[in-house]
Amino acid sequence: MAAGEQQQRKSGHQISASSTSSGRLVTPFWKEKYERDARRYWDIFYKRHEDKFFKDRHYLDKEWGKYLEGQGGEKMVILEIGCGAGNTIFPLISTYPGIFVHACDFSPRAVDLVKKHKDFRPDLVNAFVCDITSEQLTESMQPSSVDIVTMVFMLSAVSPDKMPLVLQNVRNILKHGGRVLFRDYAFGDLAQERLMSKGQQISENFYVRGDGTRAYYFSNKYLVDLFSTCGFTIEEICVHNKQVENRSLDLVMNRNWIQATFILGSADLQGPNGQHDLHACEDKEDELTANGLQKKSISEEIDLSEDFDNMFGTSHNLDEAQIIRIKAKGQEFKIKMLTKEYQHTCKLTGLMLWESAQFMCSVLAENPSIVAGKRVLELGCGSAGICSMVAASVAQSVVATDGDAESLDLLRHNTASNLEPNLLSRILIRKLFWGDKDDLKAVRELSSDGAGFDCIIGTDVTYNPDAILPLFKTARELISNDDSEAALILCYIQRRVDEDSILDTAVAQGFRLVDKWINKIHESNGLISSWFCGNDVCSAFRNATLSILYFQVGDTDV
């Protein structure tokens, strides 16, 4: 994990909606996968959290009570779309015993949770599984039979291009003059800022979260245009903004959500109070403090799916970890890790194994002289540590480092599971937060009385622009000053940081570029190219644009 990623977790700066940064889009492959497997991700969500994640929505009476009261003793019929575990349903039937609720969700586990709820009654609730982007609601209920449809943090989970399909489906079961009561995420919410900064953007204002579920962040205009195009008339719309201060994390968090009421039919239809209330409470602002006993009440009032732990905590889906077999010239490692399915959603990149680490592992296995008899340091090794494990068989000593405790815990598991005791004793695993003076001092002392390391290796540690300077400062502090041949070897796939930025920073920190190699593009000056003579290492990675940069201390040669 790079220092820039580590620094985000320690930062105490306010995160605002005014950021001008643009998100890095996921590839078409992952966009299609998250769409194709959307039901599975939500099913996993409810398997993991059951009915314990969301709070019951007891604010419904306060916010929408005027619509939920039956007129003239008439029994109200309500449809809750995206019912989840029933956090809307059961507060409704408790407060309004005369209503009947249809409840649907496309997660079978969620519907099962509703049916197992202690207050579930089939004479009051019809719960059924339905993907309303592709399945007709009229297959489970009568057309034009519903007075009110509630959509609470539901539509945001739907791909924007399918949202009109949802509303057309709703039209089929809603009475003329019936209402949609809507509450969902608003543009500029803190969670949107976090997802954007981590490269989890699918399309404009649409993101994938750390568990594979997705969220769209609505603007007033987008929402009104969407409903209007589908034949609905706006009656009320509110954009709420609350600044929530979390003192334990030293964060001020902007939480935004949008609340609206739409009528199916003519704009002449009026609300129960006899008049329209368009933009009645737009841009409300409040300040809250989230600490101690106040957290619970704030969570219920704000009612957003990302709580503090989910956004800033340390839950990384390790229950989804798998064992992957890695082979390198006669050696085989069984590595416990998260698969690349989580590359856009996991909070820590170090819990996955990247191509550059596998490639460098094969290079070292075919060319043991690179590290033979040397004091080796691996920077940002993550949880796999395969380069360090290969080096341990021939190096004098190996220190494997990362800045994240959870990645290091998994690294200890992987090294202990794959190495014999004699090789395991050659690897020291240590925390190293790039630029941290205490960490630097502790790691340098492991290199033969503080003499520094002869070979420093980093794979895929250059993806974050904020990490480049701390990376080279750390390497300069730890590389041996006594050995003129001491080397820093970086292997990576170019992402957000271009080569010129890397080289400029390296030179500024006292390194010279001795050689560079880019797969199928630049064949190097001979040193790196010699590593591929007589072996087929490159063939397994022929579709990846891998680069290797070989540095030593001093003036640049290349």
Strand residues, percent: 15-25%
Instruction: Report the uncertain regions.
Output: 2-22, 269-280, 282-300, 305-316
* Percent range of helical residues: 25-40%
Look at the helices and sheets and give the structural class: alpha/beta
**Distance between the first and last residues' Cα:** 29 Å
Mean pLDDT: 83
**Main β sheet profile:** 8 strands, mixed
Total strands: the figure is: 20
Strand order of the largest sheet: 3-2-1-4-5-10-9-11
Shape assignment: elongated
Number of helices in the DSSP assignment: 18
Radius of gyration: 28 Å
Describe this structure in words.
With about 550 residues, the chain is an alpha/beta fold. Helix content is about 30%, strand content about 25%. It contains 18 helices and 20 strands. The strands form four sheets. The protein has an eight-stranded mixed sheet with strand order 3-2-1-4-5-10-9-11, with helices on both faces. β12 (about 320-330) and β13 (about 330-335) form a beta hairpin. The radius of gyration is 28 Å and the shape is elongated. The relative contact order is 0.09.
